Amino acid sequence: MVLFITEQGSRLVKRGRVLMVYKGEEKLFMYPLENITQLVVMGRVELSTGLMGLLMGSGVDTVLLTRDGRFKGRITGKASKNIFLREAQFRRRDDPAFCLSLSKRLVLAKALNARTMLRRHHPPVYQDARRRLENAIHSIETAPDLSVLRGLEGSFAAFYFSLFPRLLMGNFVFTKRQKHPPPDPVNALLSLGYTLLFNTLYALVEAAGLDPYAGFFHQSSYGHPALVSDLMEPYRAPIVDRLVIGLINKNALTPEDFRQEDGKVLLTEEALKRFVEAYQKRLFAKYMVGEKREALWNILQRNVWDFGKYLQGETETYEPYRFK
User: Fold this and answer.
1) Would you give the end-to-end CA distance of the chain in angstroms?
2) Which of 5, 27, 46, 317 is the most buried (most CB within 10 A)?
3) 129 burial type by CB count under 10 A (0-12 exposed, 13-18 middle, 19+ buried)
4) For the residues of 188-207, what is the DSSP string, one character each?
């Protein structure tokens, strides 16, 4: 499981192979380490050196975020020893035709998953946007090079977010997607959700032995884990956007759950807990894969491993998961 710690002022220590969470002298809860695949710590939370050593030795990816979800760093153990996979990854990056073909699949899956979300959960909006969505999908499929494809992906995202105000109920206002800093509660929720999803995938990429910085669609830049951004694209709308829309429309979050601090929009501590718990629940919700239902975490994990096999030529194709 992915364990999130949001209790401000808490302290994490180990007792044997059990993670203990304290606040002052009060024991809040405990988790056996064997049940934890990733630990995400948000805000003012202390970790003992003994626990950090145990986490690294057990291969548990530990992510440190600010209280509002900005990435601070991570604690990991030894890097993967699979040099052959990384060599295959870098060879593939030098093949322009391979990069274009793979990137088309990623961007196409992003568009198709967004279209599915609109069609299933917001039919009137989908019907109004249908023609432009279909045109965008056709353009993605026929993009002649990466530069054009990146432009098409940006145009699709802008059009998609222009529909976003119609997907929301209640007193929330959203005019456009703005990342840093998010100017309103909706943008703050989207940014937080994308950060959580990014770090979920980062852990899976590293566990699979891939180099998180060597991407195929997103342009390389110093310090940017481009491969994680690549593999995340198909899952933004069906995982994070659906979560944000659902919490708002069901009144699980209201404008009163947010406050302004130093020019930033922040969730209250209780609202942050509710959001993180809802994200965690989404990770283990079950979706159809063939004839059976599987937890989303398992679907994402297998998809990353399948991607590694594809890079090494063990499979003929790679397809991101498409939500039905």
Assistant:
1) 24
2) 5
3) buried
4) HHHHHHHHHHHHHHHHHHHH
Q: Which architecture, in CATH terms, is 2-75?
A: Ribosomal Protein L15; Chain: K; domain 2 (3.100)
Q: Which residues pair with 45 in a beta bridge?
A: 10
Separation of alpha carbons 239 and 235, rounded Å: 6
Token code pair at residue 221: 């830049």
Question: Going along 66-168, which residue ranges are E strands?
Answer: 71-75
| pLDDT value of residue 140 | 98
Structural contact between residues 127 and 172, judged by C-beta atoms closer than 8 angstroms: no
CATH superfamily of the 83-311 domain: CRISPR-associated endonuclease Cas1, C-terminal domain (1.20.120.920)
Number of H helices and E strands in the chain, helices first, is 10, 12
pTM of the model: 0.91
